[in-house]
Amino acid sequence: MTDATLSLPPIAILGAGSMGGAILHGLVASGLAEGGVTATNRSIAKAAELADLEGVTSVALEARPTGNTEAAASADIVLVGVKPAMVPDLLDEIAPHLRPGAVVVSLAAGVTLDTFARHLGTDVAVIRSMPNTPSLVGKGVTGLAAGASASADDVAVVRALFETVGAVVEVPESQIDALSTISGSGPAYVFLLAEQFTASAERMGFDHDQARLLAEQTFIGAAALMAASDDEPAELRRRVTSPKGTTERAVAVLQDADLASTFTTAAEAALARAKELAAGS
């Protein structure tokens, strides 16, 4: 395949919804998608939203029912971004049309590499991905798990693709569901904290706009400081926590609430649900 440090080969995104669309925008902004991108959506309206992106061919299946097979046939990397329940039928549809050596990348939560192999054949290179919603603003983190037929070069080019929207972590498939409970579901945990932080500020007399600004900017600033520092989060926390100060008193309350156990229990609940979804329940 094309050297990922220079450019990316032709790409198809089948189902360029929220996550597929985020990756599409990252590709366009990166300038790496020199081979061009074909993106499909079911409706004409959704396709029209992407039609003006440079280097992108946006296809509405409503107007062109053969759009998925044509897009897959034109690409060296095929991203499958449809809903999990729709994946098997889509794979059956595109399997006869894939280019030799094409890499198929799953964006579908809970759909295993084995499912892809059953519908595409064991000789097709497949990589399972788990991006998260901050990819929409180029600050995502994506987990990648390679199938048995995916080469190191295949993984490298797909890694370069996802690095256009953030960081990438390579893991065995056995860890993809666990990864999803941290980075995949994690933004919701952060939003929940910001939500509660905002509510606390309102109870202290700030109006909603002030409370939201205080909460959001604190999270944004703390995240930026953490990103700019080589120190562990625990060390950064200690620096803010002056002995016998107000922060120390507040942190003690949070620690008494056994946050470590709470977060572990939450992640385990998410993992259990991921396994239920993978089993079709």
Automatic annotation (TrEMBL):
Q: Which InterPro entries match?
A: 6-PGluconate_DH-like_C_sf (IPR008927), NAD(P)-bd_dom_sf (IPR036291), P5C_Rdtase_cat_N (IPR028939), P5CR-like_CS (IPR053790), P5CR_dimer (IPR029036), Pyrroline-COOH_reductase (IPR000304)
EC number(s) from the headed UniProt entry: 1.5.1.2
Enumerate the catalysed reactions.
L-proline + NADP(+) = (S)-1-pyrroline-5-carboxylate + NADPH + 2 H(+); L-proline + NAD(+) = (S)-1-pyrroline-5-carboxylate + NADH + 2 H(+)
One GO molecular-function annotation for this sequence?
pyrroline-5-carboxylate reductase activity
Please tell me which top-level EC class this enzyme sits in: oxidoreductase
Asked if the Swiss-Prot or TrEMBL record annotates the protein with the keyword NADP, the reply is: yes
* Family annotation (SUPFAM superfamilies): 6-phosphogluconate dehydrogenase C-terminal domain-like, NAD(P)-binding Rossmann-fold domains
Cellular location(s): Cytoplasm
Q: Which family does it belong to?
A: Belongs to the pyrroline-5-carboxylate reductase family.
The family database entries (NCBIfam families) matched by this protein are listed as: proC
Classification via PANTHER family: PYRROLINE-5-CARBOXYLATE REDUCTASE, PYRROLINE-5-CARBOXYLATE REDUCTASE 3
Name of the featured protein? Pyrroline-5-carboxylate reductase
Question: What organism does this protein naturally occur in?
Answer: Microbacterium algihabitans
